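Session log. Operator J.P. requested a structure for one protein chain; no other inputs attached. Running the standard single-chain path with token output.
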Amino acid sequence: MLPNGRVSWQNPQVLLTILTIFLLGATFGALAVKFGMRDVVAPAPYMRAGDKKAIFEKFQRELQLTSEQSAQLEIVLDDFTMLLQNLQVQMDEVRADGKQRVLRILTAEQKEKFKKLIGEMPR
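Structure written below.
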């Protein structure tokens, strides 16, 4: 615990919670893709600050959290938001790298077709 009473994100319990949430999300996503739910499960780019606030308020209200639980939940959601944003940045970089690698092997005519095909694909 930090001097201000907040739990550090390096706390094993916090890390375990984040890992559990991540693994559950990855498992659900894999199953959704495997069973053809691509249209139902649309990936969000990342959890925005407004989303976090709405989720926090809903959990706080519906679960009737104590002030201590609310403080801990806020830390977990902050960490989860940061993790999702970092993963989104990494995914964008991988996607851009893959696109550049494909473009390097195509002719000028193929590049134009490729760019058109990419524009038609759902993100």
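Operator note: DSSP finds four helices and no strands in the chain.
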